[in-house]
Each structure stands twice: as structure tokens, then as C-alpha cells.
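Protein modeling request. Please complete all fields; requests missing the sequence field cannot be processed.
Requester role: graduate student
Desired output: 3D structure, C-alpha cell encoding
Chains: 1
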Amino acid sequence: MIEGSMKRIVAGIVVAVMSAVGTVAAQGQAPQAAPAPSRPVVLQRVLVKVNGAVFTKTELEERQIQTLAERNQRQLSQLDLQNDASLRAMLVEITPEILANVVDELIVIQQGREMGDRLSDAQFKSAVDGIKKENQLDDTTLVTALKQSGMTIDDLRTQIEKTFFRQQVLGEVMGRLTITEEEARQYYRAHPEEFMTPSLMTLREIFISVPTETVAGQLSFNAAADEAAQAKMVAIRERAAKGEDFAALVTEFSESASKANGGLIGPINLNELAESLQTRLAALKTGDIDQPIRTAKGYQLLKVESRSDSAVEPFDKVRDAIGNRVRDSRQGELMEKYLQNMRAQAIIEWKDEELKKLYEQYMAQQKKTN
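Delivered output (370 residues):
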């Protein structure tokens, strides 16, 4: 559960910021013309305490709206929930998972704080720069967007700091993982397709262009010129097939830019070519010369200079990559075990019996599923 919530926190920051930017743009206002909404100081209703850290009704409503907005791919408000029965029905589905994620987040953030690390100014700046770059914001637009969404720079720092603490805990958990040689080899044997070298081919080409002419305002090829170019290419291929040096024929006849280096192309990855060309070249061996190919601008003749077929890379060469993939595959499992232990030790005090019931039912269902 924690991985999804980590992504949602960062996504939520961006969604809130970008939604506000969209509001400013839609209203046709200059950024500095958007005043920050005044937020009255109110007493928050606490829904749950986890080791003393609180989660409020307002925070729950914000997460509900955020989750619904992401699912419906549009900006939403409390008014939308009041007027849309389908959205209210979706709340029944999403709220239990939100509650479960909140409990886990509070536990992990507390653990992160206890580890002693802190988000530095440089790290915060780097995170903000990343948000601005990804969403094409400058300093002024970012501040305006935060105001429109009811946030300040300090609020943004708090959200990024939460993500930072969770990453610290995740790193600590994953740092305890030791991958044995046998585990790595088992993964290697079970997933050979992940360690395949690409099929590579180096070619030489000769290209003969077919001149174009304008007819009724449109480019077209002259049939006689096309036939002449084709006949010329067929003759070149016959000479190459009889043993003449292909590179010398390139120098004599080719009109392509590759002529400068003897017509060499590649090495190229066959999987990156059009399917029709892949099929055509796959049947050729080193030294083979293909039949002339009609392209958009003329005729092309290809010779296979060298090729290497796809193969599984040696275990020793990909050992580090295997370790990373095993860690990735076990990250969710290890984090869940860690959280199970921390939940058992945590003091979780529910202030709303209905929400407590939803949370406990959800956790019981997750235990059965896992």
C-alpha cells in the first residue's frame, strides 16, 4: 500500500498545482492578479491518531476529492460530491483504502523522523525545480498556482518532506535485503527474455535516386526515369553478385550521404526497423545482397556486412542488473512485512467508529488476499 500512496502524494502536489494553473489560464488573468484565498482558522475534527500524529476530517475530504479527480481526470470540489450521486457512490469504494494508506503513511513518516535525517534546503530546491521543469512552470506561476490551491511554499515543503521520510524508510528496509547467488541464478533462469542482446546488423547501401517533376502542382515520378533507375540498380546488383567489391560500387554509383564512408549503415537494431524491413533482412546472412528496394525517393540496394543474432547475455555480465530486478520484485513484499510489524506496535486511536470499521474490514480483506 505504501508505494501507491507515495506516488499519490507527489502526484497530488502536481495535480493541485497544475489545476490551479489551469484555473488562472481559463480566467485569462495574469498570475499576479490571483489573490490568495483567505483561510479562516477552524478547529479540525480528528478522525484518527497514530502514535500521537493526527489525521483530520478536512484531510480526509481533500484526499477523497484528489483520488476522485485522478480517477475522473477532471478537477472536482465538495460541491461536485453533493450534486453527483455517482461520485458519492465511489466514495464508498475509495475511502477504506485511503484510510489504510493514511495509517501506513503516519507510521512511516514517524519512523523516518526517528532515523534522524532531514530534508535539506538543497534537496527541497531540487524537488521544486523538478516539479517546475516537468510542468513548465516558473517561480511566479508556481507560487500563484499554490495560492489558487490553498497552499504555500511551506505547505509544499511539508508534502515533499513527507515523501523524503518515506523514501528514507524504504531505503532502510531494502538495505537489509541480501540476494544470494542461487536466488540471482534462479531469477536469471526464469526470466531469460529480460537479458537478451538485440539482433544487430551492419549494412552497406547503394542508392539511386529517381528525379521528380511537378505536374498540376503535385510532385510525381516520370515512368521512364523510374524504369531507368531500376534497370541501373539491377545491373549494379548483378556486378556485385559476380564478385565485384561492393564498396567500390558504392563509390562509383551511390547517391546517398553514406557514400562518404563506403555506404556503411549501422550497426542497427533489427527490432527498431519497420516490420516489413525486419522480415526482409532477417532472412539474409553475412555477405548476402538483397534485391533492389523501391523507396520514396528512389532505389536502394543493401548488402549485409555483418550481423549478430539475439542471445541471452552471460550471467556474470548481468549480475548487478539481476540484483536490482530481484530487489524491485521484492520491494512491495518487504515493505508490507515491515508495515505489518510496525502496525502491531503502533497505538492507533480511532475517533470515528464507522471509519474504524471500514479500516478494519479493509485490512482483513487485504490479509486474506495476500
